[in-house]
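Quick question, first post here. What does this chain look like in 3D?
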Amino acid sequence: MAWFVADLVVLITVEGAEANVVHVNTVLIEADDAEDAWDRAHALGREGDQDYPNMSGQRVTCRFQGVRELTELWEARPEHGAELFFEEQVDVPPETLLRPKCEMSVFRVHCEPPDPRRPDYTCGEVVADAVEALRAAGVPHLRLVTEDDD
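> Answer (accepted):
Ran it through. Tokens below.
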């Protein structure tokens, strides 16, 4: 068995919204070979197809569109410090490849205001369950804010 990484493209639409959202989800796959990894990536993508109501009751549809990239990991066992990918560029000053921390995806959500075109695809049931769990845990003064509160 070998390890692969696949980029799965998922289209998210919200009933009545003008804009859609596209996610590229990067997943780890264990497979016998590249063909098996391709099949498993597609199976994982299709398993993620779902429909649910958002907090405003609009229908959210998530549909797998396909695999954007499939890469084999050369480390036999992924672990801390294992090299997953590399990128090679010739005759490029290294500083042009660096970005501020705030532009990295793990920090971006805290640095940028939300895009007003982004439709609300938050699962209403999941949020309601989370609010209930927080209330049960004794979190005081918890109030769910929705677009209707604007």
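The chain has a mean pLDDT of 86.
The chain has one domain: 2-74+97-142.
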